[in-house]
Amino acid sequence: MSWLSRLNPRAPGGRPGPSATPTGPCTADPETCLMVFENHWRQVAWVVEQREPSSSSDDLAAVRNHTDQMLCLLAEERPGPGPDGGGPPALGPILELVVTENILERLVQWHLRRGLDPDSQGALLKLFEMLIGQSQQPLLQHMAVLQPLLGLLGACADPQLGCPPALENSLVLLLNQGVQKTSEPVRPQVEEACRPSALPRRRSPVGG
């Protein structure tokens, strides 16, 4: 059983929800949460660091499951204490690892290299939506979070991929969150992704 099942709130009947989203700060100590995150990341890294992206549905399911758990932990994490005498709070240890190892960029690029199917596209949109909307820390101040978000939005704007109609609500919500939570220097990059002309729908098959 995953260590995370002991940390996430349980659904009625005593079972953890299949894709639990954070309802409050992680109740475990930061060191335990970091250890759980690192365990999930090791499982993901083994797949995404392969020279050729895996086409296995089992590998895709494993990456998505571990990514769900990782980003829930990141969203729940509180910032560390600031320096004596005031100043901005320190990065939480999970966010520090995400920034140092460029984890989100590596995840998004793996999905793009293997081919972003609609299910994976929708899952990534919802994960970023949850992460940005519920995080305890100002994530979009960090290029290691903002850059993969922009990469995902760019994939949604690709004429060959586009955004399926079923995902448009998730995309619009994510775009709104991105504009609201980015700082002035990087806001134009997100606003550019919000232009309607930048978000064509998925093309229908010829003759369909």
Keywords:
disordered C terminus; disordered N terminus; 8 helices; mainly alpha; globular; 208 residues; 0% strand
Task: Describe it.
There is one protein chain. The chain is globular and about 50 Å long. It contains 8 helices and no strands. Helix 2 runs parallel beside helix 5 (118-134), helix 4 runs parallel beside helix 6 and helix 5 packs parallel to helix 7. It has 208 residues and is mostly helical.
Question: Can I get a quick summary?
Answer:
The chain is 54% helix and 0% strand. With 208 residues, the chain is an all-alpha fold.
Question: Which secondary structure elements does this structure contain, and how are they paired or packed?
Answer:
Layout: H1 30-48, H2 57-76, H3 93-101, H4 103-114, H5 118-134, H6 143-156, H7 168-181, H8 187-194
Helix pairs in contact: 1-2, 2-5, 4-6, 5-7, 7-8
**Main beta sheet strand tally, sense and closure:** none
Count of DSSP strands: 0
SS strand fraction: under 5%
Instruction: Give the helix/strand class.
Output: mainly alpha
User: Radius of gyration, rounded?
Assistant: 18 Å
If you average the pLDDT, what whole number results? 75
Low-confidence parts: 1-25, 196-208
